[in-house]
Design goal:
Blueprint: H1 3-15, H2 22-29, H3 33-45, E1 50-53, E2 59-62, H4 75-90, H5 97-109, H6 113-124, E3 126-128, H7 134-139, H8 145-157, E4 159-166, E5 172-185, E6 188-195, E7 200-205, E8 209-219, H9 224-231
Parallel strand pairs: 3-5
Antiparallel strand pairs: 1-2, 4-5, 4-8, 5-6, 6-7
Helix pairs in contact: 1-3, 2-3, 4-5, 4-6
Length: about 240
């Protein structure tokens, strides 16, 4: 049996029992006690809340009062939820907008501290601003479908992005940028970047980007404070980042 399947079976076994022992788990799953201990350690590393007590009445149990679904979410999925929660919060007519942010904070609290830190760092690089102006809406196009996947990878992996860009005057150019952040002025999206050749902060509207590709050999360290100070100087009503 593949190790990943065995660990999943262990997780399912724990969810089906209030409390059990390592010996009982080993017998039920037909593995050694040593293997059970190793797989329990793997689940704990993934953030699954497992407690164990020694002595009479003790055993291994899943802490059912914590958010179990959080451990199955990737960083990208958490950013998507955070973004959805913030967009809901900016639309005051929508119900449960505040509850969305509250639920997300519980999600952060349900995972190990180091993983929560990584999630928050990624979320801080996504900024939600005021809705797009009528002028932007009138000319707004649709970003190429392939751009979204390329951008997500460059953004999460902290590597440079190369693309063709046509500015508001129709001038075309090839750019090499560090994608430090993302600004959402729904339904418009902007890459908050540092133009490598110009060594300056720039904003690029995503529907004006074409033929994007990763440049994995060029990495960078995100600097959202510097980018926001320069590129967002004229933007108001920016939603607060994750604290």
């Amino acid at each position: 049996m593949a190790r990943v399947d065995r660990v999943m079976r262990l997780h399912d076994f724990l969810r089906a029992h209030e409390a059990t022992t390592v010996a009982d788990i080993a017998a039920a799953l037909e593995v050694s006690v040593r293997t059970v201990h190793r797989d329990l350690a793997t689940l704990r590393e993934q953030g699954v809340p497992i407690s164990s007590d020694s002595g009479p009445g003790g055993g291994v149990r899943l802490e059912r009062d914590r958010g179990l679904t959080a451990v199955h979410l990737s960083l990208e999925e958490v950013v998507a939820l955070w973004l959805a929660a913030n967009l809901s919060a900016t639309a005051t007519s929508l119900p449960w907008g505040r509850a969305a942010r509250s639920g997300l904070e519980k999600l952060f609290a349900s995972v190990p501290r180091e993983r929560a830190r990584s999630m928050r760092e990624l979320c801080r690089r996504v900024v939600v601003g005021r809705p797009a102006t009528p002028r932007v809406l009138a000319e707004l196009g649709t970003p190429p479908e392939e751009l979204l996947a390329v951008f997500e990878r460059a953004f999460a992996q902290k590597v440079c992005l190369s693309f063709e860009y046509r500015d508001r005057h129709g001038h075309a150019s090839r750019r090499l940028v560090e994608p430090h952040g993302l600004l959402v002025e729904a339904p418009a999206w902007y890459v908050l970047a540092r133009d490598v050749e110009k060594s300056a902060a720039r904003m690029f509207r995503m529907d004006r980007i074409r033929r994007a590709r990763l440049v994995p050999e060029r990495s960078f360290v995100p600097d959202m404070e510097g980018l926001k100070a320069q590129a967002l100087a004229q933007r108001l009503n920016i939603a607060p980042s994750v604290t």
